[in-house]
């Protein structure tokens, strides 16, 4: 028997929402305990700040410029490499429960397997995979899927509509009548994508994901090695946790986040120092992609709305923490505990009030980029707890899983197994993390390349309809942790700027083995 | 109105491509997700594998220009016009263009996204791949 892997992801969760990372709003004792016993990473970046490209990176161990999923709505090529496939080849049982989103969700023509699995009444699909034989879809032998609510065709939606049909309409309606991300406000403050949800907690998707994960684990033979990706749709908007849990955090008691600039004039001044797409979005003049409500103007966001969003977000984070606790208890009960590695992270962050903004988009600052990442190695390995401050990326997860499994690391992997401490990180050259953004929607295109290294963070705005190729952002993460002072054009910062631009140029020019061509945008999400 | 356009070059005479893409009744042969297609006069009813049924009005069938246009008639779609053009490049090669103009804007992206895959299928079918 080898080591098993429980890979826990959330969706759109900030670094500072966990107690172990200094968060004070949500109580997260389970993940905090994993961090205490394992390795906590203080500077983990995604390869993209939206779901589909980032999830494709986690699955393939490649940046978007290598796996081809450059934006939401671009499907991952079914023949792409997959860590789940490699683990299956190594003899692992493989499952994904919760949100996959390797393929578009808005799919009326039923073109994508993810959307057809539940419709066909199966938890997995038949058919060859990457040469045939391994896994049902993207290397997973078992998939039970969910997303942010009960609309659509996924397994959770089918389950809820068949067992508790009255609950389906209790969720926030994510899309409006024009199929745009809804700007309708709710809750106590009228904040967008906030809603009082009367659904009982036991029917909520967080509980379902944990329940179905436990069910799959119970089906696995005790001697099997397994890789289980447990993927919670929360705390991604809409912010509509079960109303029964709203007592946990009263939004009226919530302090405004450090990244919020309270004075509107000062806020506009801070945004004006950044490349033009920031202020244009704030003022409602630009919607670069489908990730935020097109009919919502960020400048209208009030302080109380920020408080309520943060309160509901914290409640969702608490529910996830408790759900992880239930799954860990099951792993213990089933006899897997000593040989199970647990990795907890998310696909990208959330602005959540930073600079007076919500949601996400081409806005590469810590709210979206700095991610929670905890790796609790299997207790049988007796790994010393540690904190890693050097930069790592989600691109390093797939190599880590293969390393845990003792499996062959294919040459197409772009990352490396995560370091066990800073000394290990230094010795193995973990000194930078890269993030890419490419969007092209209805005549507006934005292209960003970002790197963090040496305590600095730089974004290069490439030529598009919004930028002329000369703009960028540069922040000193030590002196300016809130990234308010853009030093890209400062003569005194020219040396570090040019050094980081060279790092980006090297990233652009890197040799990519069997790169998948950029896919076609076929849906908004 | 949102507009999205895709095209593909197909190594067959324009007349051959038009015989497939310009035929209202042959949609299921190349458009993804379509399992049935019934044409009565200027009304086409498309049935998808998902079970959805799409009523459409055939707006244009222009044999001379090799242009086919149709409009979806669904309450959720405020405006829609899809246009298929088959343009002769030379005797053995043509360019097939699928343009979608629609409101809500999202529908232009979704319909054109499926159509792009459809054009790829048509190319494979026509070129005998």
Task: Name the features.
heterodimer; A: 525 residues; alpha/beta; Alkaline Phosphatase, subunit A; nine-stranded mixed β-sheet; four-stranded antiparallel β-sheet; globular; B: 129 residues; alpha+beta; Alpha-D-Glucose-1,6-Bisphosphate, Chain A, domain 4; seven-stranded antiparallel β-sheet
Describe this structure in words.
The complex is a heterodimer of chains A (525) and B (129). Helix content of chain A is 27%, strand content 17%. Chain A has one domain (4-509): Alkaline Phosphatase, subunit A (3-Layer(aba) Sandwich). In chain A, strands 1, 2, 3, 4, 7, 8, 9, 10 and 11 form a 9-stranded mixed β-sheet that branches. In chain A, strands 12-13-14-15 form a 4-stranded antiparallel β-sheet, covered by helices on one side. By secondary structure, chain A is of the alpha/beta class. Chain A is globular. In chain A, helix 5 links the parallel strand 3 (93-98) and strand 4. Residues 127-133 of chain A have low confidence and may be disordered. Chain B has one domain: START domain (Alpha-D-Glucose-1,6-Bisphosphate, Chain A, domain 4), CATH 3.30.530.20. Chain B has a 7-stranded antiparallel β-sheet with strand order 1-7-6-5-4-3-2. Chain B starts with a strand and ends with a helix. The mean pLDDT of chain B is 96. Chain B is an alpha+beta fold. The chains are: A alpha/beta (525), B alpha+beta (129). At the A-B interface, loops of A face helix 2 of B.
